[in-house]
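Continuing the series of single-chain predictions for the mutant panel. This is the parent chain; the variants come on the following pages.
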Amino acid sequence: MPSPTEITVSQLSRLVGTPSAPVIIDVRIDEDFALDPDLIPSAFRYPHHDIAALVPELDGKRVVVYCQKGKKISQGVMAILRNHRVNAEGLEGGHFGWRDAGEMLIPAAKIPEPGPEGGTVWVTRHRPKIDRMACPWLIRRFIDPHAHFLFVAPAEVLGVAEKFNATPFDIEDVFWSHRGENCSFDTMLDEFGLESKPLKQLATIVRGADTNRHRLAPESAGLLAASLGLSRMYRDDLEQIDAGMLLYDAFYRWARDATSETHDWPQPESRG
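Parent structure:
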């Protein structure tokens, strides 16, 4: 049984990837991290001995901290944060507990370095529709909640990437893009090691909508319709991305929790 100030692996796993996910902080020492350089999705590293410096940023947020085994370092960090009235919990079993349960882990080396404002910086073509909506959702929910997205003219993507140290995606001849019949969303799932049934199902829907192959999933046509509707509703690409987060949140929760549920009207008559 976890203590009242701990969260279990299964409890945290249900929150990861959703709007209700806590701020997750990896406080492993460098030596422990070097032996296992993967991160829990959306987590970031921070030195345990300087954790009090994060208090202003964490005010009013739910926080989960973890070290290698969930013992002295994460317990101490959690206690310091709670002493500052931060709603902090330790992860039961720490990194080892999460890893040994077979939960998803992100190779830290695949995550771009943060920009001057603290989050990773990504750049792509303006006027997003499908893939350029799905990828920002994936990044913000599973990789970097503070990621910044730059939408520019197609001809300027690579130049902006170079001048502003941004990572280009969903354009030709870059790493984070289409590969064969797969979309940029598929590439990100593969490279970040995000192996889960709901994300794979969502990827199929995205691929069908983005490449006009609606036979891949019946939901692809609906995603295309909703995405095109959003593109007509918003002239500002960032406002459109913010609105699209809810759309992809809904598709993800359906893929995770509701694929077996149906709805019909009128309701079948009950038989006595």
